[in-house]
Amino acid sequence: MRTTGKGRARRLAMVVPLLISGASAGHASDDDVIEAGRADFERHCAVCHGVDATGTGPLTEYLIRKPADLTVIAQNYEGRFPFDRVAAVIDGRADVAAHGPREMPVWGYRFSATPDRAEGTHSAEERITAIATYLKALQKR
Question: The whole model's pTM is what?
Fold first, then answer.
């Protein structure tokens, strides 16, 4: 079953912490989700966006466009973190048209093809939700 928009976000907010941590109801924490997102971000995203998510990864000099500073997403959206939009950009459902051709990998496809989490196998949707949750936690105030 595929949902969109706010319904998807609500469903994921309730289910993902349990799925990612493997915990039973009431035992998962936001910290577990953020940690899972951090691990995937550092493994797959930091090479371009930098470990600090400011767009200063070691491959930056080889890219046509500098990767986005992911710590100011909420500032760019009037203080609101656009969770569904961020997840859609990560998984490939949405492009950033103003940036021209997509250089960023389509992680929804790649995570579906290679469920390689060290802690166990998780769906692409769970992993992308965890990365977006991690990025939300990194936002500058």
Answer: 0.70
